[in-house]
Structure formats: C-alpha cells, structure tokens
Amino acid sequence: MPAHHEVLPVDLTERDMAVLERAYEIQPADYEELVMLSGFGAKKVRALALVADLVHGERASWRDPVKYSYAHGGKDGYPYPVDRETYDCTVEYLRSAIEDAKIDKKERLRALKSLNSFLR
Question: What Pfam families does this protein map onto (predicted)?
Fold first, then answer.
C-alpha cells in the first residue's frame, strides 16, 4: 500500500495503515478471520463494505437505510448521516482508480457505468 495518496484529503493514521497492511498480508479467508485482527473493528468493516459494494457492483440494501451510517464515523452507537465529504472522497478515489487503471476502454466504461448506477 502506498505511504501516501493524493486523492483523499484525510490521511489514515499509522495505526490504520498498519491494520490494513496486516489484513492485506494475511489475506483472511473469511469475515471471522478479518475481525479477529487487533484494531480491525466495525468501522473499518463498514467502510470496506461500502468500497466493496462500489467496486464489485453489489447493490446496496435500501431496506436498511443506516447500512453505511457509520462507514466513516459514529462511535457512540447512535446513527447519524454519513460524513458526505468523506463519502464523496471515497467515491472519487474509486472513480480515479478506474480512470487510471490499465484496462481496455470497454471495461473502463462498464466500471464507470456501474459506479454511477450505484450512486443514483
């Protein structure tokens, strides 16, 4: 993982990076293994779930409107609106990654269309 990125205005803490790097190196086989990593709590799981939905085109469940309410914040147990600025930066990071990816034009357009359809 890069030590620094230019797309998001908020940097991850050293601890956050260490946890994500450890998860990447270990390649957990399932959810249970992932959450057993020290420092890998519910907030990181929800944030990764949001990114996975965007990347893999899984439709969000609108039956549960608070599904991502803690994706980038909310530690007191009470839902509040997603930090829209951070959410938008996450989406923009994914859009930039798609545009910069070494893939053919057809695949790039499909990925961008998928990302845009999720955001509607």
Answer: DUF763 (PF05559)
Q: Establish if 2 belongs to a structural domain.
A: no
Q: Domain for residue 89, yes or no?
A: yes
Show contacts of 3-9: CB within 8 Å, 24+ apart: 5/93, 7/89, 7/92, 7/93, 7/96, 8/86, 8/89, 8/90, 8/93, 9/85, 9/89
Prediction pTM value: 0.41
Residue 73 forms part of a structural domain: yes
Instruction: Please indicate, yes or no, if residue 95 is contained in any of the structural domains.
Output: yes
pLDDT digit string, tens, across residues 34-81? 878 888 877 777 777 777 777 777 655 545 545 555 555 555 555 555
Token pair 């205005």 in the structure block, residue: 9
Length of the chain: 120
Query: Which domain does 115 fall in, by range?
Result: 14-119
Task: Give the dihedral of Cα atoms 115, 83, 49, 104; nearest 10 deg.
Answer: 30
